[in-house]
Design goal:
Order of helices and strands: HHHHHHHHHH
Helix content: over 70%
Distance between the termini: 26 Å
Number of strands: 0
Strand content: under 5%
Largest sheet: none
Structural class: mainly alpha
């Protein structure tokens, strides 16, 4: 187990990394703006569930295998990019939101937002590579089980990330409440949301494998 000082240093470093806005923040805020605060919170939970999957993979060494395999890296990279692009196209083609009055997201929509958040993060190879580059700097081989230390540090990272994600979800939800008040703004919102998803997908597809170390 990492000692208290080690955990404190990691928490500070993780906080510095997390507060920098990134693709996950943009995805969550966009989801909250488009579908409401509940969808944003569900997406936040999904994204951090995906983070825990990466933590577990790093703890048992799968992330290292993926990082060393160009084929595995490419498969995950393009699968993640394709999924984001799919979300973008689906959003752009949805015209029902323009005529529907603003209403709370149904349970099925919340569940879908959660599952899509999981997939978006699990299919992001940059997250796996981040854990390979960042976490090992705070692992002390003399302090006991390396997988256990990795998992504990990953839980700290996920907790900090969840707090940050929720802030974006609530902020995006507040903006979305106002935008959904008018049909015209709902149309602009749909275009904006779809474009953001497409942009995230293209950015994910253009990750340079040569720089992944």
């Amino acid at each position: 187990m990492p000692d208290g000082q080690q955990l404190a240093l990691f928490a500070v470093a993780a906080l510095i990394v997390v507060i920098i806005p990134g693709p996950n923040h943009l995805y969550i805020a966009t989801r909250a703006i488009a579908e409401g605060r509940r969808a944003g919170v569900a997406s936040s939970l999904g994204v951090e569930t995906g983070t825990l999957v990466h933590v577990a993979a790093a703890a048992i060494g799968l992330s290292y295998v993926i990082a060393q395999s160009a084929v595995a890296f490419a498969v995950i990279r393009y699968a993640g990019a394709a999924y984001l692009i799919y979300l973008g196209v689906r959003t752009l083609l949805r015209r029902d939101v323009e005529s529907a009055e603003a209403a709370p997201v149904r349970p099925g929509g919340v569940r879908r937002a959660y599952l899509e958040g999981v997939l978006v993060n699990v299919l992001n190879p940059k997250v796996a590579l981040f854990f390979l580059a960042f976490l090992p700097q705070f692992v002390d081989r003399s302090a006991g089980s390396v997988p256990l230390q990795t998992f504990v540090l990953g839980l700290v990272m996920a907790t900090i990330g969840m707090t940050s994600n929720l802030l974006y979800a609530f902020f995006g939800g507040s903006i979305g409440d106002r935008l959904r008040a008018s049909a015209r703004m709902r149309r602009y919102q749909r275009y904006g949301t779809g474009t953001v998803y497409l942009g995230l997908g293209v950015a994910a597809a253009l990750v340079n494998p040569a720089r992944r170390g």
